[in-house]
Structures are given as structure tokens and as C-alpha cells.
Amino acid sequence: MPTALKLEFAPLTTTPKGVLIVLCEESLKYSAAARKVLEPCEDLLARAAAADGFKGKNGSALEIVAPTGIDLTRLVVLGVGKGRDLKEQDFVKLGGIAMGKIPSAASAATIIADLAGGGMEPADAADLALGVRLRAYAFDRYKTKRKENEEQAKEVKVTVAVAGVAAVEKAFGSRKAVGDGVLQARDLVNEPANVLYPEEFARRVGDLKKLGVQVEVLDVAAMKKLGMNALLGVGQGSEHESQLVIMRWNGGKKGSDPVAFIGKGVCFDTGGISIKPASGMEDMKGDMAGAACVVGLLQALAARKARVNAVGAIGLVENMPDGKAQRPGDIVTTMSGQTIEIINTDAEGRLVLADVLHYVNTRFKPKFMIDLATLTGAIIVALGHEHAGLFANDDKLADRLLKAGIATGERLWRLPLGAEYDKKIDSKYADMKNTGGRDGGSITAAQLLQRFVDKTPWAHLDIAGTGMGSPQTDTNKSWASGFGVRLLDRLVADYYEK
Ligand code: BES
Ligand code: MN
Ligand code: ZN
Predict the structure, then answer these.
(1) Is the dihedral of CA 320, 323, 327, 330 positive or negative?
(2) What are the tens digits of pLDDT across the range 140-157?
(3) For position 90, what pLDDT does the model report?
(4) How far apart are the C-alpha atoms of 268 and 341, rounded to whole Å?
């Protein structure tokens, strides 16, 4: 499948070139536009469908290479089931499936975005186009050689043929902004840690200034002054300076309290002195997926000029073993004044977030705070890769997040917080310790975070299982998912704009 995508919209009457993809409803029902184009190969199509038992069931496909009677290299019929049952997520998925059917050799493809029963709204066609865009992403910038029989990746022009071009283009505007945010997040997560260390990460966030986002970078000296010793302790074994990056998008009413998003940005997590086993450690280049999501989100909000005041804050560190590294048994005083005994230097994400949460809460007095973090392996044991863990001190915020998750397919599952769990991180020597034992590991991690949020409505998303290494889907074949960007953009759009 080719990487470089040129996406265009055209009227339904456009003449398809190269690969043609049409939609087909149950009992082989095609839209009028598809029937018109397919007229010269009507017989062939009917025979192929019969031979393959293709009936238009949702998720099924019929593919004919070099069909006779029509000037195409390939004809793909995508079954959609009952057209009127299709929801937002189904259209996004259909776009992804369609993109997946375009072979790498192709340079042009047309998707006829129309249904037999009518009812393909501009928003539906735009959702389909978003799916095309998300699926076309690949992280191949370090591939200098290709296998012999592999086609050179080249640009492919995908034309989405629609009933009303102007209306679909308008609907696609905000989706393109969000889609670009997702791809930005994926790029950051996929990038190896020798390239993307805290200072380089902070430098890349600077690109958001072009969209009108204010970007402020606090270095180690500035964080020392603020007393962010929990965050700094994690990074002190690294050759790379830790960084705190604050992004601000002010698209809302002047002076109205912002919404705030906080990301764990551990650019590489070796575990530190409590070093991780070698097997699979390379995946810890993605331990900044929370931060990547916050960057992608702020980019999306700015690009679609969201009417909201938003703050994004990411704590960027590298967790390394070294002569200067933090030790188990060390006690650090956080910016909030509370002290933490380090039991395991591999439980570092919560230490970073403790200081960033307190900083954001006290400086910005936000409406709510949502943090995203690849925080615990335990959340993968509990929920696999299909749901992110949701923890919240506020039912309304939790419900809104759950709803946004269902709408976008970036699903969440709520887990409990409570005094019994909180007790497990009490320490003999300090106010708390940074691990609460094996049992309920994701919950005790969340309890530590909660000690740094006071009364502000807050939610914590543990994305260790969903941000990276999740199973490939119709809309993502890359290791990094960009999880959270669409979810949080939707939360803002549905509840916090105006
Ligand atoms: N970054 C890891 C969590 C993680 C694991 C993310 C697998 C993605 C995939 C985190 O910093 C960590 O090491 N957590 C420890 C905590 C433990 C030491 C209390 C864990 O989950 O084992
Ligand atoms: Mn760790
Ligand atoms: Zn980590």
C-alpha cells in the first residue's frame, strides 16, 4: 500500500481511473451512481458475485482484477450491510478498508461514496475520507531499501466521489485537522528514542506555533526553581535534559477557565536502577504516547479553530540507569510539598505526572484536568488492548469521556478509586511511596496521581495497552495508534465549546 496520499473530492459523475471502489448494500444493492459506472461490466460483476457468494454483507469484499468492458485496473466492491444502520465509526472503518484494498502499484483510485438507499450525508462521506487518511499512514522514514518485488512507494491519488462536493469538503475540514493530529501523535510515538529525546521533542512541539498555539518550554533550571523534584529525579540519570512543555490554545472566551490535558512523556523507559528485562524493552520508546496525544490534540484544536481555551502540558524525561540516577529508597519532595519514597525507579510515570498535575492545577485553575499515560503494565493484563483504563474523581467527566469513547471507537473502561486502595501507597518514611504492590497496580498508580489534583475534576487515562503495540485495525497498520486524539477532540467538541 502506498504511503503518500493525495486525497480529493469530486462529483459522483467523475470518470474513475485505475482502481474503482464501490459500496454495496445487502442483497447486492448498488447506488445509482455505482450502477451507472458499472453498467458495461454488469454481467461480469453478477457472475463474480455469484461465484464468490458475495451478497454485500458488512465487512465482505469482492475484488476483480482488470475487469473486461471497463477501463479499470481493479474493481473492488465493499459490502456495507444495511446502509441505514451505518454509524460514524462504520464510515471511518469503511474508508480504512477501502484504502487497504488499493495495491501499492496503483497511482489512482476512486471511491464512490454513495449508498443504494441514499442517505449518505456529507458527514458520512467526510468520515469515510478520514478513514482513508488514517489507514494510509505508515512510518517508513528509516527504510532505505525495499524488497525486490516490492513496489516503490509513490504518491497515490484517491478521489472520493460524492453527491455534494462543497458540503463534504466543509465537513472534512475539522476531520482533516483531527486526522492530522492523530498522525502527528503516531509519528512521535514511532520515532526512536535516539532521535526523539526530551529537547528534540520540545523543539518539535514548537511547530505548533504556526497554528497559533503558544508554546513555553521550562528547562531543568526553571523546574528546579519550582521545586519539581519528582519529575527531575526521574530524569537525573540521563544525558538528556528533562523538559516541561506548556501549550496554550485560546480559541474560547477571553478569561474563561481552560480545559487541561497532561501527558506522560518518558522518551525512553529503561526502568532506571530497577532496570527492566531486555526482552521487549525497545517498546519503551513509546512511553511518551500520552505526551504525543496531548500534542496531537492541541494541534487538532488549533487547526480546526476550536472555540475553547485549552492547556496542554507534557513532562519530558528519559529514565536511565547511571551513577547519577535516582535509587530505590530515595525520598523526593514534590512541587506540592508532599514527599514520595521511591520503592521502584520503574514506577516513574506517576512521579513525572505528580509534579505536572500540581503545576497545571495551581497555575491555570482549569475546568478539569485529564492526564494520559502509558502508566502500568497491569492495565494491559486487566483490559488488553481494546479499552484504555479510565479513573476519575468526577462522574460527569467520566460519563462524558465514556460517551466520546463510544462515538470515536477509542473506548474506555472505568476502574475504581478508593480509600482502601489509597492506603496501600502510604510510606513508613515519607508521605507516600511510588508503588503499592502487585495487586491492583493500575489503581494504586492512579491513587498516587489523585493525591496531586485536589478538588479539580480530573480523569486519568492509562493508555499502556492502547497507545502503542495494539492490534492492527482497519484504520491503523502502524505500531503507534495515536489513541486519545479523536476521543478528546470529541469530548471538547461535544461538551466544552461555545
Ligand atoms: N512504562 C511502564 C508501563 C508500560 C508497560 C507501558 C508496558 C507500556 C507497556 C511503566 O513506567 C512501568 O514500568 N510500570 C511498572 C510499574 C511497577 C514497577 C509498579 C509496571 O507496570 O510494571
Ligand atoms: Mn517504568
Ligand atoms: Zn514508564
Answers:
(1) negative
(2) 999 998 766 565 567 999
(3) 96
(4) 22
Sheet with 331-333, edge to edge strand ranges: 331-333, 339-341, 432-433
Residues near 358 by beta carbon (within 8 Å), at least 6 away in sequence: 334, 335, 336, 452
**Ligand 1: which atom is nearest the Cα of residue 266?**
1
Cβ atoms of residues 413 and 438 within 8 Å = no
- Closest listed residue to residue 93, CA positions, set 181, 17, 171, 23: 23
Q: Which residue has the cell 525486490?
A: 148
Say how many Å lie between the CA of residue 486 and the centre of ligand 3.
23
Residue 36 sits at φ, ψ, to 5 deg, of -60, -50
Per-residue pLDDT at 1: 45
CA 207 to each of CA 193, 247, 296, 313, 317: distance values in angstroms, whole numbers, following the listed order = 19, 11, 12, 15, 20
Of residues 194, 192, 298, the one with CA closest to residue 245: 298
Regarding the beta carbon of 114 and ligand 1, being less than 6 Å apart is answered no
State in Å: Cα 377 to ligand 2 middle: 9
Report pLDDT digits (tens) over 211-263.
999 999 999 999 999 999 999 999 999 999 999 999 999 999 999 999 999 99
**Grid cell at residue 194:** 535516539
The protein residue with its alpha carbon nearest to ligand 1, atom 22, reads: 377
Residue 224 DSSP class: H
Ligand 1 pocket, residue 318 CB under 6 Å: no
For the CA of 274, the nearest atom of ligand 1: 18
Mean pLDDT, residues 451-475: 97
pLDDT mean across residues, the chain: 97
Contact 294, 481 (CB under 8 A): no
In angstroms, what CA-CA distances link 75 with 98, 120, 232?
11, 21, 57
Q: Which residue has a Cα nearest atom 3 of ligand 1?
A: 376
Amino acid at 259: V
Question: pLDDT per residue over 396-427, tens digit each?
Answer: 999 999 999 999 999 999 999 999 999 999 99
Whole-prediction pTM: 0.97
User: Which residues lie at CB < 5 A from ion ligand 3?
Assistant: 266, 269, 287, 349
